[in-house]
């Protein structure tokens, strides 16, 4: 088993504690069979519908666990976070549950549906930053200035323990799971599920999926060190941004392989998914579906990783991580890919 750094990745016991905290707050998300993908690939394909959570993504899991672990006086001072949108929604939702003030720094380009949703939950939104990384700089400065807790969108033991509850649910819902496709940006979801699966179910082949425009993790893992990438517009806004050494460790230890999908593949898949299921997936949530639907090549993280045999058996589970996409963007995509 790959060595997991305990200062970066939570213990399985911490994930179980997070699950206990979430038990009365958030029901397990559904696992739905995809008849179309199962037929196409010739193996059972199941979809973990994190998009059906109250805030429309998995992010509420980690945010709630962070706030649940804080002392009451610290919560009363409030929290601050940076986010492409979904983490902000999760923090705002959890902060409201604990009656704690929250300030969210998001990029000016974040989908309006995400910004409106954060404000509707009672949090303050600052969208002055031009991109995700600039938003994080502002949020960290705010936390230092005001003496409040900064909740990182992708890192932190409590945050990753909350995200890891997805894996606990999957091991209960589908103990025979053979492979798991994980939406991958800064590594929060990958690290959470990986912390559990590496220790409890190492036979599960984990594939992290990014878009060609959000490839910081893939590029850095391939290089063996953190590589800054160019920030470009993308449908998968929730996966955008740079990574650091801790996130690189997550990619190197929690993924068996990484895959990239194109913007066109994401757009087509969003439309296909809505047409065939009636459900809406945002770009970051649809990358796993796009990888399966369009046969994206998976690149092993290490040369010793088996990159072939797991395709021949199932079940394969794809996490569909979020649904928060502007209706106008959906309409635009439908005009292109509806045929």
| Percentage of residues assigned to helices | 40-55%
The overall pLDDT, averaged over residues, is: 95
Overall strand count: 11
Strand composition percent: 15-25%
Bulk shape: globular
Decide which structural class fits the backbone: alpha/beta
**Strand order within the widest beta sheet:** 1-2-11-7-8-9-10
Task: Please indicate the count of domains.
Answer: 2
> End-to-end span in angstroms?
46 Å
Instruction: Quote the CATH topology of the largest domain.
Output: Rossmann fold
Sheet with most strands? 7 strands, mixed
- Rg over CA atoms: 18 Å
With helices defined by DSSP (H or I, 4 residues minimum), what is the helix count? Answer: 14
In CATH, the architecture of the largest domain is 3-Layer(aba) Sandwich
Low-confidence stretches: none
- Could you name the CATH class of the largest domain? Alpha Beta
Q: SSE order, as H and E?
A: HEHEHHEHEHEHEHEHEHHEHHEEH
Can you describe this structure?
This protein is α/β, with parallel strands linked by helices and 339 residues long. The chain has 2 domains: 12-58 and 157-337, Rossmann fold, CATH 3.40.50.1100; 59-151, Rossmann fold (3-Layer(aba) Sandwich), CATH 3.40.50.1100. Helices cover 46% and strands 15% of the residues. The protein is built from 14 helices and 11 strands. The protein has helices at residues 12-22, 35-41, 59-68, 72-77, 86-97, 112-120, 132-146, 157-173, 188-200, 216-223, 245-254, 263-277, 283-293, 327-337; strands at residues 31-33, 45-49, 79-82, 102-107, 124-129, 149-151, 179-183, 205-211, 257-261, 298-300, 316-320. The strands form 2 sheets. Strands 1-2-11-7-8-9-10 form a 7-stranded mixed beta sheet, sandwiched between helices. A 4-stranded parallel beta sheet has the order 5-4-3-6, with helices on both faces. Helix 5 packs parallel to helix 6 (112-120) and helix 8 packs across helix 9 (188-200). The chain is globular. The model has no long low-confidence stretch (mean pLDDT 95).
């Amino acid at each position: 088993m790959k060595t997991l750094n305990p200062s970066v990745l939570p213990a399985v016991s911490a994930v179980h504690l997070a699950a206990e905290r979430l038990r009365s707050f958030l029901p397990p998300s559904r696992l739905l069979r995809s008849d179309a993908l199962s037929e196409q690939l010739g193996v059972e394909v199941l979809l973990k519908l994190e998009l059906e959570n109250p805030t429309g993504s998995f992010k509420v899991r980690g945010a709630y666990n962070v706030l649940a672990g804080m002392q009451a006086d610290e919560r009363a001072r409030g929290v601050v976070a940076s986010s492409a949108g979904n983490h902000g929604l999760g923090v705002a939702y959890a902060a409201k549950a604990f009656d704690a003030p929250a300030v969210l720094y998001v990029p000016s380009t974040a989908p309006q549906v995400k910004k409106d949703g954060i404000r509707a939950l009672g949090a303050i939104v600052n969208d002055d930053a031009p991109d995700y990384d600039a938003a994080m700089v502002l949020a960290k400065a705010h936390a230092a200035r005001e003496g409040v807790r900064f909740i990182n969108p992708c890192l932190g033991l409590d945050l990753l323990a909350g995200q890891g509850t997805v894996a606990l649910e999957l091991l209960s819902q589908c103990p025979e799971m053979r492979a798991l496709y994980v939406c991958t940006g800064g590594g929060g979801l990958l690290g959470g599920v990986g912390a559990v699966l590496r220790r409890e179910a190492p036979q599960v082949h984990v594939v992290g999926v990014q878009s060609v425009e959000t490839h910081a993790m893939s590029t850095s893992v391939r290089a063996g060190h953190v590589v800054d990438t160019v920030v470009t517009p993308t449908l998968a806004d929730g996966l955008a941004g740079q990574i650091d050494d801790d996130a690189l460790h997550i990619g190197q230890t929690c993924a068996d392989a990484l895959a990239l999908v194109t913007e066109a593949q994401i757009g087509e898949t969003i439309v296909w998914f809505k047409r065939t299921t009636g459900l809406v997936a945002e770009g970051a949530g649809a990358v796993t579906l796009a990888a399966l639907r369009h046969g994206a090549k998976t690149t092993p993280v290490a040369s010793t990783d088996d990159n072939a045999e797991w395709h021949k058996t199932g079940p394969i589970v794809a996490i569909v991580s979020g649904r928060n996409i502007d209706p106008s963007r959906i309409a635009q995509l439908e005009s292109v890919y509806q045929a």
